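Hey, resending since the last one bounced:
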Amino acid sequence: MTPGEGQSTRRAGPVTGEGGALRAGHGPSSTPPSPLPPARGSSVIWHEVECGSYSADLPLWEELARDAGPILDLGCGSGRVALHLARRGHRVSGLDIDRDFVDALNGRAAEMHVAAEVGDARDCDLEAEFGLVIGPMQLLQLFADSTERIRCLGCVAAHLSPGGLAAFAIVESMPEPVDSAPPLPDTREVDGWVYSSLPVDAQVDTDSIRVRRLRQTVSPDGELTEELYGVRLRRLDAETLEAEAREAGLHPAGRRPIPATEDHVGSTVVLLEKGA
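The structure tokens again:
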């Protein structure tokens, strides 16, 4: 990536659960944040506002899931990918550090072969093996440094069956700022409350990408509250990730692109294999 300041970004999701798909914005906002109203399941709501409509990666996860056996979705959030795969007949387990996300996913699972539990992807023991472990969006880039990523990769290696595959999506670079009309916000109405999230900007430095969103909430009575919300992604390229994977006992098995869309930047999925 080329460092830069004040770059616009494409749509960006939350930092808990999935990292989020990066989306186009158009410069910083001058609107000051004000206090948010009391939480109403807000972590799940904002996660779904900012991530729920993203689908560009789903065909690749479907392809990798074919004949893979049991699947583990790391940072599963409220189930965007896990439920999608379960609806197609796959047996999926989810792991997320946020209990609200796990409860939301399990509440929607119905009779599908999907279940999630609370846990840290850097230190977990699920007492199971999986043919495919996936880390959608920018999960690995939420960790603080290489040490934490290698801990996660070591846990992945311990849970993969021999010959199993892991797949992690990362954003290796940010696009140049765009000169066009500002994007529309992501919005959702829940129980008469309207939630809106607008990408504002991204700051790119030597080791991280800091993405900001303006979150606005309108109460049923029409009262508006807002805040600036930020997420920090550590910069990571495929070559570095493959080197870290080797330290954790995994072997590079190729790379696959997730193409950019009109609203979202593209990403790279790094494939890692456990020896038979």
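The longest strand covers residues 193-204.

Sorry for the duplicate.
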